[in-house]
Amino acid sequence: MNYLSELTDFLKQVQPMLNILLGGILAILGGIAGAWLQAKYARRTRMDQIIAERAVDANSEAYAHMKDIEAKLVQDTLQNTYRTILKQQEWLIKSRLYLPGRFPDKWFAIRNKLTKAVRLQQKLAKTTTQQTADKLTQLEGELKDLVEEAILEIYKEMKLSRIKA
Fold it and tell me: Which is it for the CA torsion 37, 38, 40, 41, positive or negative?
């Protein structure tokens, strides 16, 4: 029983020191947890910044490529326009993650319609039929519409409105 009273007396004397020690340990753990959370959020924020920067670059390049294709549809041959889109295909694949919503789908639709248009143009050169000429004219109109839709995807993503001339 003597040991129990001595232990109780000892604990009463040491209790303030134990409280300080426990408080110190909890403060250290809190500091570690705070630093870990801060680092985690800082990494996430930096990653979001990098993604946003790449998205802006990709949208800028996408706009330039679409404007190039739009101009070629009016001023150049369908074959040259088709070659242009094929040259830019590697860029599209590298940038796909950063491009707006349906832009890649529009790109592939333009490429596929250009393929059909080039084939129709070759067919038209061999045999001139009104039906083939009408299909080619229709395809050219669809191509222009698809390019316009792709450009609008970029505008939407960047929250911009078209400049009206």
Answer: positive
CA 78 to centroid of chain Cα atoms:
29
In this structure, the number of other CB atoms found within 10 A of the CB of residue 163 comes to 6
Q: What are the structural domain ranges in the chain?
A: 54-158
Q: State the burial class of residue 123 (Cβ atoms within 10 Å of its Cβ: 0-12, 13-18, 19+).
A: middle
Phi, psi (degrees; rounded to nearest 5) at 66? -65, -40
Task: Give per-residue pLDDT as tens, 20-62.
Answer: 899 999 999 999 999 999 999 999 999 999 999 999 999 999 9
Amino acid letter at 152? Answer: L
pTM: 0.73
